[in-house]
Amino acid sequence: MIPEIETKSLAEIEALQNTLLQKQIAYLMQHSPFYQRKFRAENIDVKSIQTIADLQKISVTTKADIQLYNNDFFCVDKSQILDYATTSGTLGDPVTFGLTDNDLERLAYNEMLSFQCAGVQKGDLVQLMTTMDRRFMAGLAYFLGLRKLGAGIVRVGAGVPTLQWDSILRYQPKYLIAVPSFLLKMIDYAQENNIDYKNCSVKGVICIGEALRTTNLEPTLLAQRIQEKWNIELFSTYASTEMSAAFTECALFQGGHHHPELIITEIVDENNQPVADGELGELVVTTLSVEAMPLLRFKTGDMLRKHTQKCNCGRNTYRLGPVEGRKQQMIKYKGTTLYPPAMHDAVAHFNEIKLHLIEISSNDIGTDEILIRIFSEDTSEEFSNKLKDYFRARLRVTPQIVFEEELTLQKIIFDPLSRKPITFIDKR
Ligand SMILES: [Zn+2]
What we know:
- It is built from eleven helices and 21 strands.
- It has helices spanning 10-31, 33-41, 63-68, 101-117, 137-149, 161-171, 180-192, 221-229, 340-347, 381-395, 406-413; strands at residues 83-86, 96-99, 125-128, 152-155, 175-178, 204-207, 233-240, 245-249, 256-257, 263-268, 281-287, 298-304, 306-307, 319-320, 325-326, 331-333, 336-338, 353-362, 368-376, 400-403, 424-426.
- Bound molecules: zinc ion.
């Protein structure tokens, strides 16, 4: 069930990655207009790139590069593209990715490995509670991955607790794929409608979009709140369109496992120099065995840590910790720096809050202001102060709190043009 390479020694894993890297670089030299230009401009002899360490000789690829030269990243004729996907475009314009037949096969393999990490087996049934269309690569990946694994899928899509529960009770899925905060809505709905959710078929959830672990890999408040009410296992998975690869937790919850056949990662500081294992830095990825749109040293903007101590699940691969924030979304508040996910998790501490939206703006003196707009059962000043005190104690920041009507926030958060709920707005 675990690919042989993932049980091998670190030296053997690295040797395989180096071989695949050499192949990918030779392929880029042959087929990628963007990288041909880059190699020429930077005087790179592609034969000199033999190992992961050699990648340092090539400059990084940024999101702006792909936005500006999107077509030049394509390595195949358009007639070979079987599926188009776009990035979610939370920062700037979305970028188009194409997948060939081989890329779809690679995506299926990747997602099969990812589900296997979370313990999904042949014959299990999984309910998909995220969108499969809207040019979303992940939804397609889940479908293809489960099919390859021999597991079943119920494609319910996002939202609609009634239909989610109807499907759970009707088809008895063992796993769900969901945004974790939506599970709280599912629990509320079940309680209101006398659904015996604690004894239903669901044993685990593969979670996307929100952090389940803290920096130290402890459960976040959100994860705790879900598990206090519903005794199910929550597996975090981290992936992106650009990576075309997923990092998913195994049952030991030591971060998302790396699959060495699919991707090379580096974690770098502001000067693109590697940081020490366990230190926070920006993830840079080089995709392996991608045909339509391979990326070399792509800076993801995701701030996270690499965990290298041995995991006892049988895989010898390192893990990536939770995304602690997007690099561009770093907030500077009176000597403290933080990222939105830590604030979202602090909000999760309060059951009274049903919806929230964080807005960041800069004030006249150039520091950041934090405004949290909430729809809450309790709109007293005491509650507002309690919230501020909690933020001060936990994160050393004092946000402004504004109470809003449910509909006002709903319109912004659940924008029909967005695949994910919008809970953070950067006005700087
Ligand atoms: Zn493991």
